[in-house]
């Protein structure tokens, strides 16, 4: 597969410009669960300067600010920046590409990226940029989903597409979505960017969604690559995918809700 970094970036950017509210509604209660351990991995403390890279709705920046850090959030989507400013007034959010941060070198005491690396056409550049903007002795941490056999929500939708649809559709080619679900790959990437003493830990999370089509709707309306995959299916295929997902979700249904294990990995390293 030949990667298409620029096409992929444009595809991701266009999608994030249109779904800030939907993402917040569907994923907000899930992706915030890892923030405490993520900030711990970056060793964020009161009085530090902290950079939230690919800040999205600003959850990590807001949590760091509550811990007493001086915070900046950077995201390439103007719509996401506006949404973050609405959710967290008083915190500084700016437009900026994680692969080419519009910031000087050695400005921050800590930095983190919460699931943002999964949406970059050239994640290696983002890691190099994170290294550049940190001071010596600072730590950087990023989070990613565990593999789809553990992150059940992704496993369910991908199995349904594999069985009833077309798993290979015409979307811009980006890096493998689950590339960093491998702890050793996380460590290799951090070392390649210059970080030392890399660590990877797994964090348990539980996603609570409406029963029935809650997962289907979240994946179709609040994601980028998975949404593109679903929307590329023919109507008959999409209905079968939806039915297969509903059937598999019965195992995880409790009354009006489903509860899905969605563990994630936190990778961290230090700039010596």
Could you describe the 3D structure shown?
It contains eleven helices and ten strands. The chain has 272 residues and is of the alpha/beta class. A seven-stranded mixed beta sheet has the order 3-2-1-4-5-10-6, with helices on both faces. Strands 7-9-8 form a three-stranded antiparallel beta sheet. The longest helix is centred in the last third of the chain and has 15 residues. It is globular and about 55 Å long.
Gist of the model:
By secondary structure, the protein is of the alpha/beta class.
Q: Name the helix and strand elements from N-terminus to C-terminus, one letter apiece.
A: HHHEHEHEEHEHHEEHHHEEE
Q: Biggest β-sheet, characterized?
A: 7 strands, mixed
End-to-end separation: 36 Å
Overall shape: globular
Overall mean pLDDT: 97
Structural class of the secondary elements? alpha/beta
Trace the largest sheet across and list its strands: 3-2-1-4-5-10-6
Q: How many E-type strands?
A: 10
Q: Portion of residues in helices?
A: 40-55%
Uncertain stretches of 5 or more adjacent residues: none
Whole-number radius of gyration? 18 Å
Strand residues, percent? 15-25%
Output the number of helix runs: 11
Helices, strands, pairings?
Blueprint: H1 5-18, H2 20-31, H3 35-41, E1 49-53, H4 59-66, E2 70-75, H5 78-87, E3 92-95, E4 108-114, H6 123-133, E5 134-145, H7 152-164, H8 183-192, E6 196-203, E7 206-210, H9 214-221, H10 225-231, H11 235-249, E8 253-254, E9 257-261, E10 264-270
Parallel strand pairs: 1-2, 1-4, 2-3, 4-5
Antiparallel strand pairs: 5-10, 6-10, 7-9, 8-9
């Amino acid at each position: 597969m030949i990667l298409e970094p620029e096409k992929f970036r444009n595809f991701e950017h266009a999608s994030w410009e249109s779904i800030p509210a939907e993402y917040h509604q569907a994923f907000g209660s899930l992706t915030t669960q890892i923030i405490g351990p993520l900030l711990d991995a970056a060793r964020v403390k009161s009085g530090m300067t902290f950079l939230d890279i690919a800040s999205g709705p600003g959850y990590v920046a807001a949590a760091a600010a509550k811990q007493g850090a001086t915070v900046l959030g950077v995201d390439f989507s103007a719509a996401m920046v506006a949404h973050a400013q609405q959710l967290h007034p008083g915190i500084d959010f700016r437009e900026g590409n994680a692969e080419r941060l519009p910031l000087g070198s050695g400005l921050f005491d800590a930095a983190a990226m919460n699931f943002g690396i999964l949406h970059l056409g050239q994640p290696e550049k983002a890691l190099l940029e994170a290294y550049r903007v940190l001071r010596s002795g600072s730590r950087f941490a990023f989070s990613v989903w565990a593999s789809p056999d553990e992150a059940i929500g992704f496993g369910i939708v991908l199995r349904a597409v594999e069985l009833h649809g077309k798993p290979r559709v015409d979307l811009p080619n980006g890096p493998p979505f689950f590339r960093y679900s491998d702890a050793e790959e996380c460590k290799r990437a951090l070392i390649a960017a210059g970080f030392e003493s890399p660590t990877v830990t797994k964090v348990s999370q539980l996603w609570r969604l409406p029963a029935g089509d809650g997962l289907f709707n979240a994946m179709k309306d609040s994601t980028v690559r998975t949404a593109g995959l679903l929307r590329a299916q023919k109507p008959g295929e999409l209905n079968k995918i939806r039915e297969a997902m509903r059937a598999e979700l019965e195992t995880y249904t409790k009354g009006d809700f489903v509860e899905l294990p969605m563990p994630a990995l936190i990778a961290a390293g230090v700039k010596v």
